[in-house]
TrEMBL record:
Keyword match Transferase: yes
The protein's name in its UniProt record: SET domain-containing protein
Keywords from the UniProt entry: S-adenosyl-L-methionine, Transferase
Residue span(s) of domain SET: 20-113
Stretches assigned to the Post-SET domain: 121-137
PANTHER family: HISTONE-LYSINE N-METHYLTRANSFERASE-RELATED, SET DOMAIN-CONTAINING PROTEIN
Cross-referenced PROSITE patterns: POST_SET, SET
Pfam families in the record: SET (PF00856)
Highest rank taxon of the organism: Bacteria
Length: 170
């Protein structure tokens, strides 16, 4: 079975659903989500609950201007940020998918800058990636060059925000 069989799920999920191949762990630096067995690129890792709030909070995930997937206390609240993440948000299906093959023990991470326009709680990233963005405050705070480097992985909402900030072609 390839991860989570998302198609069989009800259109509106009252709760998040996690692949049986991942688990929440508590490490020295806090909680995180880790693979417990091999995962193929593209596999669904977590299908998010269809629970939304209008404003950004600590655990929300931005879907649209005034629409954020709510922090629900479920496993998706504990996906840590990484500037070179192992998972990406699929907004259309409202789920996280693996962006590369994962081995047991690999952490499931997500680049918050690919969904969040202006974060409720900024922090300093120490992920150690070559292109670590450092101060993580939201897409709007990035330089144009940084925004351009992330363009292939940002959500449709951020794509619209970015386009509206570009100089007109005329
Ligand atoms: Zn980083």
């Amino acid at each position: 079975m390839a991860g989570v069989e998302i198609e069989e799920w009800a259109a509106a999920r009252p709760r998040s659903q996690a692949s049986p191949k991942i688990e929440l762990r508590t490490a020295a630096l806090g909680r995180g989500v880790f693979a417990t067995e091999a995962v193929a690129a593209g596999e669904v890792l977590i299908a998010l609950a269809h629970v939304f709030v209008a404003a950004a909070e600590q655990y929300t995930i931005q879907i649209d201007e005034d629409r954020h997937q709510a922090g629900t206390g479920e496993i998706d609240d504990f996906l840590n940020h990484c500037c070179e993440p192992s998972a990406a948000l699929d907004v259309e299906r409202l789920c996280f998918v693996a962006v590369r093959p994962l081995a047991p023990g690999d952490e499931i991470t997500f680049n918050y800058l690919t969904s969040e326009w202006d974060m409720a709680e900024a922090f300093t990233c120490r992920c150690g990636a070559d292109r670590c963005f450092g101060n993580i405050r939201g897409f709007r705070h990035l330089s144009r060059a940084q925004q351009d480097s992330l363009a292939p992985s940002i959500t449709p909402f951020l794509r619209r925000k970015r386009a509206s900030g570009l100089p007109s072609a005329a």
